[in-house]
Amino acid sequence: CLWVRNFRLKRRLPGPFAWPVVGNAMQLGQMPHITFAKLAKKYGNVYQIRLGCSDIVVLNGDRAIREALILHSTEFAGRPNFVSFQAVSGGKSMTFTNYSKQWKMHRKIAQSTIRAFSSANSQTKKAFEQQVVAEATELVEIFLKLSAQGQYFNPAHELTVAAANVICALCFGKRYGHDDVEFRALLQKLDKFGETIGAGSLVDVMPWLQSFPNPVRSMFNNFKDLNQEFFGFVHNKVEEHRDTFDPEVTRDMSDAIIGVIDKVDSDNGLTKGHTEGTVSDLIGAGLDTVSTAIHWILLLLAKHPEIQTKLHELLDKVVGRNRLPSVDDRSSLAYLDAFIYETMRFTSFVPITIPHSTTSDVTIEGLHIPKDTVVFINQWSVNHEPPEGSLDKDLTNNVMIFSAGKRRCIGNQIAKVEIFLFFAILLHQCSFEKSAHEDLSLNCTYGLTLKPLNYKITATLRGELLKAVW
Ligand code: HEM
């Protein structure tokens, strides 16, 4: 029974004293991942907190997290049945669904669709890269326009449009202009998605907050509205695809997913609605994350002009001034790649994964965790552990930002190509500078992603403006 379950959880796991009603909610602070890392120093890497009416286990540090996600991958592959998760993609999302046979099938379909359109063979690889290069060169032009007469601008929104265009081109065979007002408005709303989904959000653990007016309730109402609007947008696009579907010609990812989920009479429980669910998962996951990565990169470049100069020199030496950088240059641009990994490690801009839950009883570091326990995985703590003795042989592999195990990110390969190309092309073509009056802060807002506070930079063209040539 619940009492016995709670008793066992309470007895076996260390953790801070939980107050009645709110539990430890008031102790999370503005940056819960940092609070969780501090609590780990006191209670160990595996401990329990209570948020509202939910007991939650928090995992910290490389050893405990890898033991859970890799050695006990199935036991930690669940998702909690949070009300906010059910509001995503009309309840047909793969990302926000609990572990099951049906989920496994759904994930496989999403994974093979990504592969088919980005890395299946040299032709798809090239087509994907060309798409990113086209977006990156357009972004260069937009940044230069926004910098006319030495003006300073905030790059955040243009970065979101560029990342959205890459994934929309893959999913719908269509990109949107940076001046498309409706598309910009939709993306602006989606910007708030991570506030509710991020670990520590209160609506899921204090359901009674929905019964009277308060900021959490209005945040949740906005969340439901934005999900409905986004799902409606995806649904319309998928319907257009259904109307013109030709099984002989797969135009884009939507066609590929329709071909598998709509058209195949499967007994795995997936229905037509899961087609839209898959497309929204891919678009949703692919825009905020990639754009936030580049947002941090631009901030750090402007903050550290000496590193920017070194990177400019490297690009000029390896690529020269007569062509744009390409993925083939990557192995010769190790310092640039190192800058990307260090940005991911240092900012840990997805500080805690999407909340997990246990699919059965499990023991981690000798501590018993019952089935159906909500689990927060503190990636930030892995990336900020002091090194033990000598440096690791393969540091880049140890940066944890895409998670690990059965729920690890399925877009990590395309995300890395996108970030590399956007970064290399923007930097090859432009110098970025902050205003003398601005002291660029590393402070950020918390959610599923950590976003830099508004900042402004200006871009200056380095030499000749190059167009993509194929
Ligand atoms: C899940 C990170 C880009 C698709 C995740 C998770 C993280 C993550 C931390 C949660 C894993 C967990 O709960 O344990 C990132 C980062 C990205 C990125 C840092 C960019 C720098 C992308 C892209 C796509 C994508 C471009 C697809 C187009 C997904 C999907 C899931 C996911 C579908 C859900 C997996 C599941 O629940 O089984 N990602 N991601 N991601 N990501 Fe990414």
Q: What ligand molecules are bound, each kind once?
A: protoporphyrin IX containing FE
**Per the principal axes of the C-alpha atoms, what is the gross shape?**
globular
- Side-by-side strand order of the widest sheet: 1-2-6-3
| Global structural class | alpha+beta
Description:
- With 470 residues, this protein is α+β, with helices and mostly antiparallel strands.
- Helix content is 50%, strand content 8%.
- The protein is built from 17 helices and ten strands.
- The protein has a four-stranded mixed beta sheet with strand order 1-2-6-3, with helices on both faces.
- The protein is globular and about 65 Å long.
- It starts with a helix and ends in a 9-residue tail after the last strand.
- The model has no long low-confidence stretch (mean pLDDT 91).
- Bound molecules: protoporphyrin IX containing FE (HEM).
